Amino acid sequence: MTDTGTFRQRLGNAADAFDVTVLGAERQAVRTVLFAAGRGGNPLRHRPLLDHLATLGCRVIAPHFDHLPSPLPSGPELRERCRRLQTAAAELADRAAPTIGVGHSIGAALLLALAGADLETVDGERLSPGISRRLDRLALLAPPADFFRRPGALRALALPVAIWAGAADTVTPLAQSRFLHDALTAQVPVELHVEYAADHFSFMDELPPGVVDAHHDRGVFLRALAGAVGRFVLS
User: Fold this and answer.
1) How many contiguous H segments (helices) and E segments (strands) does the chain have?
2) Span 8-19, average pLDDT
3) What pLDDT shows up at residue 2?
4) What is the Cα–Cα distance from 171 to 194, expressed in whole angstroms?
């Protein structure tokens, strides 16, 4: 185990400044975890998962994002989130440790784009930001696949991917995770884990206002999820 202290840091300046929560090892991290939250933008809604990864010796870097007003985000909104992820990784990652991307919902889609996938918005705008610091593997929670329907959109991915999906998810239905799994299975190591009682928000410890989770025992599910993600991160 390593130091699991937590602090919040402000990056950037003036109008483009943003907050990043950093958890875990200050020195000699076994892994850097770059965490990307979903539409709501607050990574601390996933705090038990982040804490668990920190206890494993990881340095967890979790940028905070502005809430997306629409479930169909625009190119500029997604580019701003990518900028924050790239800046946080460049300034705060342990350069001696592999970097693992972990993301929920739209955050998972952005990590795919940062790993080389060709993301396309509903308006047909394409987003291929690339990342200066290489991602070594991706753990995707309830990922939306409709951003990657263009033929060849996933061709550049060359890293192991693990996907966790909820069969009761009506926001990013299970079929989207199956699409990603099937599209990637011939080119990279990929695994798909399905929780049949989970919906889209079961992956969050703190639910958004007004949301009722369909899972009958979300606490048990989240503990098992944290363990599984942790094993993938360290593998």
Assistant:
1) 5, 10
2) 86
3) 41
4) 15
